[in-house]
Design a protein that fits this description.
Layout (H helix, E strand, L loop, with lengths): L8 E5 L11 H15 L3 E5 L15 E3 L5 H10 L4 E3 L4 H13 L2 H4 L3 E2 L4 H8 L1 H10 L7 E4 L2 H11 L3 E5 L9 E3 L5 H11 L5 E5 L5 E9 L5 E9 L12 E3 L6 H17 L5 E9 L6 E7 L4 H10 L3 H9 L26 E7 L20 E7 L2 H11 L17 H9 L5 H10 L4 H8 L3 H17 L9 H9 L4 H8 L4 H10 L5 E4 L13 E5 L13 E5 L10 H16 L3 E6 L14 E4 L4 H11 L3 E3 L4 H5 L2 H6 L9 H8 L1 H10 L7 E4 L2 H11 L3 E5 L9 E3 L2 H14 L5 E5 L5 E10 L3 E9 L12 E3 L6 H17 L3 E11 L2 E8 L5 H9 L3 H9 L17 E7 L20 E7 L5 H16 L1
Parallel strand pairs: 1-2, 1-4, 2-3, 4-5, 18-21, 19-20, 19-22, 20-21
Antiparallel strand pairs: 6-9, 7-8, 7-9, 10-11, 10-13, 11-12, 12-15, 13-14, 15-16, 17-18, 23-26, 24-25, 24-26, 27-28, 27-30, 28-29, 29-32, 30-31, 32-33
Helix pairs in contact: 1-10, 1-11, 5-6, 7-8, 13-14, 14-16, 15-16, 18-19, 20-30, 26-27
Organism: Sphingobacterium oryzagri
Pfam families: CPSase_L_D1, CPSase_L_D2, CPSase_L_D3
Keywords: ATP-binding, Ligase, Nucleotide-binding, Repeat
Length: 939
Amino acid sequence: MPRNTSINSVLIIGSGPIVIGQACEFDYSGSQAALSLKEEGITVSIINSNPATIMTDKVIADHVYLLPLTCESIEKILQEQQIDAVLPTMGGQTALNLCIEASNLGLWEKYNVQVIGVDVAAIEKTENREEFRQLMIDIGVGVAPSKIANSFLEGKEAAQIIGFPLVIRPSYTLAGTGGGFVHRKEDFDAALNRGLHASPTHEVLVEQAVLGWKEFELELLRDSNDNVIIICTIENFDPMGIHTGDSITVAPGMTLSDKCYQDMRNQAIRMMRSIGNFAGGCNVQFSVNPENEDIIAIEINPRVSRSSALASKATGYPIAKIAAKLAIGYNLDELQNQITKTTSAYFEPTLDYVIVKIPRFNFDKFKGANKELGLQMKAVGEVMSIGRTFIEALQKACQSLETNRWGLGADGRQLRNLEEIMDSLEHPSGDRVFHIKDAFELGVPLESIRKATRIDKWFLVQIQELVHLETELRRYQLNNIPRDFFLTLKQKGYSDAQISWLLGNVTEDEVYARRKELDINRVYKMVDTCAAEFSAKTPYYYSTFEDENESVISDKKKIVVLGSGPNRIGQGIEFDYSCVHGLIAAKEAGFEAIMINCNPETVSTDFNMADKLYFEPVFWEHVREIIELEKPEGVIVQLGGQTALKMAERLEALGVKIIGTSFSDMDLAEDRGRFSDLLKDLDIPYPKYGVATSAEEALKVANEVGYPVLVRPSYVLGGQGMSIVINDEDLEKAVVNLLKNLPGNHILIDHFLDRAEEAESDSICDGEDVHIIGMMEHIEPAGIHSGDSSAVLPPFSLSKAVQDQMEAYSIKLAKALNVKGLLNIQFAVKGEKVYVIEANPRASRTVPFIAKAYDAPYINIATKIMLGVNKLKDFTIERKLTGYAIKEPVFSFSKFPEVDKTLGPEMKSTGEAIRFIKDLQDPFFRELYSQKSMFLNAQ
């Protein structure tokens, strides 16, 4: 059936600010869906309050509404635009819940808007735990014994009937919020109360806990002819009991028998067909008894999910893009396979490689947090890796995490305390996979590890083999390792740094040189969705160690853009936004744009965003070999946050050109001590400071500059390790702790300006001229990290004299640092005097906010200046803001109720929203302003 021609305008509902459990995977899905609909000539409107995403950019949609996700906002859009249909399946639980609320208010009916991609009744069936349970029973799909409870008394009765252990699942919540396991009767009352309060309908499912069973996810697509295909089967490395977002996952499934797999497929298809008459995507989760392969359904989500982004990147099949076309009436056999360009979309991808996803945690930002993993998701991001085997992909994923691991162990960071290790295996945290390897190294039997973790034996055998390989390697020296054995190590995912550490007396560069002598080279394979049965047209690659290299090198001038790796607090989706615009600008400037990144949630890792995509760890060895293969004109590190910046020194040493501001100038800004010396030379006010490398030096500096002092390490992002201290005792503790976690780092000690206001500027410099793209005034005072502060654009209470000083210092610093591209500067304002706190000659988290507020393509402009193809004078830059824009930080403290929520110099927010006001009399602003007065008076 051809597309529904009555649909000419579609509204896509976004997911709002990034929170734990709902991150930028929905930015990816929404962006892909919008572009897919635009291909069909459909006018696309988007509502989303998140300024950091590419989804809310004019390159994605025809009309972008940066508004709160409320029914009032929805009605405003319906009054302004002639909307024919709404697509709520691309914005996670937030979008589905808003769609239901608007439906209950009669908005869709009032404005004659179709709901496409899902049936509202289907949402009710899947989110209402009792309806879902009864539906599964009706269609013959197994479910765990359970009872619904709408009151405390009903919950107690259910527990008495079912027996412990139990799991509590609240209705209509995201990422397991309010849910959890209850092992003992004594803990039940508190857990039940928590679940009932978390559910907006005050409803929970009290269910038998199937702890230790295997967990699987299937990603499905269905068209209006009721054709259903399975895009990807994902197996959880961790057994039931850990939220899928916190679990290591593997695709395709590794330990399923064919009989069980076929049974699971049939049940998933039956489930999808039972939940309403709609066309689109769906995610189904199952649990499998490892003893007899009995299957029970956990849940079904009639929308794209976190796993949909992973499955899209894993298979090359653009789930959200195809789902959007199915929603407007197309059938699967009428659509083209986007990878081969010759076959239809009515096929199931075949993988001749293995995918591993590992979640990224940020427990260091939540001091005192319970790190044990359970039903409530706690991860802030994730990485995905591709290898020819599970173990190769697992090692590559460990290298991608940005946690200073060089692979799965073999890097000097192993645990050696058996009691700690066994406790970690039984009470899983984010490091458990590393501790499994540590346990094997200490000689713990495989069966003991299996009983402690309940992880399938097949996975444990793969990890155990690494220990045997490392024992074998220690028999050799670098110059006499047999070539076949060296090749085996590389095929098992070992980095040169790991091999160097295991040998003990050689450097990483020496290992690299030796394997090159032995002609052991990384080659690149194409992700083609069909195991090379048909030729692929899309240049999407991963590396391994074999003979044939499938990455054909063109003779075009090339630019490599380094991505930012996994999302984490302090480095999030704003850098994906920057990378996407960098790729677009590089292509517009006539370069072949090459992307290197390992984050499956991002738009920058979409197969058709760059001219060439290497889905690889942003890890030195991998980046180095791609650059040696491609021989680019240079590498852009300004757009990928601290991850990319950390590569700059080694790239320069390798003779690779850094596009834009040079490494030496970026390093000058990063080195807090040298930067303060520069401020002194430029006669720019700054707080008194000193640099220390020990607690003794720190005490001396602090007493010279005067308490209170701000203690911070150099070369960090998101305020990592920063603290404000008021006496010698606290200072000594802070410095010792920093040097323990960041050995060898210089500690900067600044006099802290109490009762100071904070402000910042962002600018673009072409080496000669400087353009201030925006100046913001913070609501919270100096001492609270800028990422955790509400900020108002333009400043609302800073005098002209203060703003003139900010502008003058921005221009002076841009020129002194020889900036080519972007520069962010943070200021403290006390009285009418402006002090410079820090400068960052790179993309910052504020640039997307300013770009959305002023409706200006700042990253695109900055990239072309970095590339040397344009000067500032070539652009006419207009500001379209009427009134003020406010950046509101968003937190995920509900995931960690036990932690201190006090804000300080270390960033804790997970995302942000944007709000526009016409004038300073706006009630929302007046409330914020009263907070500012309170803060300043209280200090």
